[in-house]
Amino acid sequence: MEDYLPRVEVRVIDDEKGKGLFALRKFNPGDVIFEERPLVCAQFLWNQAYGYLACDYCMRPLETAEENVRRLTGIPDLHLPYPECCNTKKDDYIECSYCEVSYCNVHCREQAWEQYHQVLCTSSYLGNTQHPLDQLQNAWREMHYPPETASIMLIARMIATVKQAKDKAGAAHLFSQFCHKTRNGDIAHKLLGRHFQNQIEHLRQLMIKGLQDEDLLQWFTIDGFRSLIALVGTNGQGIGTSAFGVWVKNCDALDLAQDEKEKLNSFIHDLYKKIENETGPFLNNEGSGLYPLQSACNHSCVPNAEATFPYNNFTLVMEAIKEILPGEEIIVCYLDECHRNRSRHSRIKLLRENYLFTCACLKCESQIPDADTTSESDGDQ
Known about the structure:
Blueprint: E1 8-14, E2 18-23, E3 32-36, E4 40-43, H1 45-49, H2 65-73, E5 94-95, E6 102-103, H3 106-120, H4 132-143, H5 152-164, H6 168-176, H7 197-211, H8 217-220, H9 222-235, E7 237-241, H10 243-252, H11 258-278, E8 285-290, H12 292-295, E9 298-299, E10 305-308, E11 316-320, E12 331-332, H13 337-340, H14 344-355, H15 362-366
Parallel strand pairs: 9-12
Antiparallel strand pairs: 1-2, 3-11, 4-8, 5-6, 7-8, 10-11
């Protein structure tokens, strides 16, 4: 009976912190707190340009594990053992009937078409020049080199979702829950830095050219467009999917003799080294999405929960990593693994730039006496 009861609720904390997500029952480490799909998501444009093939709707990989690792290692004749550990189903793949956008199955194509793709399908453009949305994506790539932390296509899909909705006001309201913070009326997100001002105006003009709508004129004003950029910058949750990662996970579950297991583990370890040497850290099909419940979770450098993507698509599963009692706030770490162990000064700098607040968690408070400097290893010199 307990599983049918509400597990969490969003509460307003105060004017400074805004809202937070709170547990309504006890969670033990490893428990699923909630699952949710994004209102919109999009693959990072540089990942797309570099051949990281993913479903345009749910971000499920469109490569086999073998194709994935061949590209990442640069070894075209590499073969993976245990092909049954690859979950890729290429027979289900399908493209948009009008453009070259690819999906992992018919359902994803239908969902995208019903939600936003009718507006974004570039085949409908009759001009003699490049489609404004293609120009928009090219402009974003020129401005934001990898590693990307947001995507202009999140904004495009937000706009298209509202344009296609029968209840436009209701659809627009869904996105109003993703708040961006302002300081004295000025949005201070790093994506809106001084050196981006001319670029932002160029992006806005391309967005107007491709998507302007009478019911969303406020989103196309200078301030409105800046607000949208701040919204996706502060609320976008990273998504990573990988055919090779799934293959590795399934290999770990194989019932093998000890010597075979050791041989396989050595083979996988060697593959990761080859990928690191050839591709660096860009292992996954990466992108970002807007998740209502996840976005309600506040930050701590000592979190009690973390977002995972066990289905290898855009479905987010929030798991407890510590015991969480009823009434306790569910807190996550906004920093990725390589940044979590940096100095207090570096963590606060990153959080101010990306999320517009100064962290006052127990870890940061305990490290206040530490020198207010950044070591060379922190990468902020």
